[in-house]
Amino acid sequence: MMLAVQKSTLRGTVAAPPSKSHTHRAFILAALADGESVVSSPLIGEDTCATLDAVAALGATVSRRGDDVVIRGGGLSAPADVINCKNSGTSIRILAGVAAQIAGTVSFTGDASLCSRPMKPLLDALAELGVTVSAADNGCAPFSVTGPATGCCATIRGDISSQFISALLIGAPLGGHGLTIHLTTPLTSRPYVEMTIAAMKKRGVAVVTTGDGFIVPEGRQYLPASVRVGGDYSSAAFLFAAGALAGDVCVTNLDPADPQGDKMFIGLLELLGAVVSRKPDGTVRVGHNELRAEDVNLADAPDLFPIAAVLSTQCSGTTRLYGAAHLRFKESDRIKSTALFLRDMGADITETEDGCIIRGPSTLHGAKVTTFGDHRIMMAAAVAGLIADGTTVIDDPGCCAVSYPAFVADMQALGADMRYL
Is 21 part of any known ligand binding site? Predict the structure, then answer.
């Protein structure tokens, strides 16, 4: 199945889908707390279901209650079967940190894409904590960890993936002996770690931030909690961009106090000249306007790169997107994947090591787009198709189910000419 997109004008209101990042953390932390937790309005997508299946395999009891997920956690143990995290980097990384604190051997695998993504810095840090790690020489999945960890100090780079840091933080309380994390390089995507710290605090574990890392005090345990998952600014960015490029779109179900780093996209739209209005309840309205080029540092919000690049093709002047070298190790090499489809659509775009340079504005035209199974490439290309002459045909549109299963339906409800082939 493919998706055909035609030039469209969008108008209307749509609710942002639940946050994928918050859902992962809510499911895992509920499994670690001894007692019953209720996760309301979670994102039910391919990645988060991989996490849900994994915590069930580790011994948590999972059930549905309407739109809520009920998890009874505590007393986790190593399963006999391999945990398949499919395409979810968040799942395999954070759960590796959890497994390191469990007695016995826990084995992990995933699909071909996940098995090519970096894991070695995290696995090395777990080995430093006394965990036995069995993995290929490149440190990627499949791998196994045998715990429990006995050490209380880990050293790790901060510029490969914030998920490594979240993994160490979330797993630490299970050991009971505390953990000190020293970062050897600056931390990228810091808001994702702040999101982890905030989620841990809600469940009774306060993390101390130091000059070069973090400390999880000894003797802390997670408490069960009922939480509601708010809207996802990462997914909302595609709706915002559609409004800025092709009409007038209002997005609800967003919390202005949420620590999600991708919230910065709203400020970026304002900086570039889009018409933006915000309400105290978090509702954001974005409308079309002439856009101007700016240099944009995406170190703390790398997931915005594909849609920021689409937006930049319509800016007058030269835009430089930078600070996101680790995008080359996502579901696809997102810098290369983005440059490929935008160049095919007529954009003047040049790859750099950590981003790209775009000269605009460009008149885009329809093209055949290869997503490489990457949900953010698929959604960014679909938004680009809304302003392109002719037809944009996108392969594997179903990959958006990883983070935004209703993306096409929501875009159609706003007036987008999108149809499956």
Answer: yes
Dihedral class, residue 92 (left if φ above 0, else alpha if ψ from -120 to 50, else beta): alpha
Tell which residue, 125, 196, 207, has the closest CA to residue 166. 196
What is the set of domains in the chain, with CATH numbers? Answer: 2-17+231-420 (3.65.10.10), 20-217 (3.65.10.10)
Residue 137: helix, strand or coil by DSSP? coil
Give pLDDT tens digits for 40-93: 999 999 999 999 999 999 999 999 999 999 999 999 999 999 999 999 999 999
Does the annotation place 93 within a ligand binding site?
no
Q: Rg of the chain's alpha carbons, rounded to an integer?
A: 21
Q: What's the rounded Cα separation, in Å, for the pair 135 and 329?
A: 18
Q: Is residue 113 annotated as involved in ligand binding? A: no
Q: Which segments within 200-246 are labelled E, that is strand?
A: 208-210, 213-216, 226-228
Residues designated as active site: 303
Say how far apart CA 375 and CA 380 lie, in whole Å.
Answer: 9
Cis peptide before 148, with omega less than 30 degrees from 0? yes
Q: Is cis: bond before 142, omega within 30 of 0?
A: yes
Give how far Cα 287 sits from Cα of 270, 321, 374, Å.
11, 22, 27
Distance CA 284, CA 240 (A): 8
* pTM for the full predicted model: 0.95
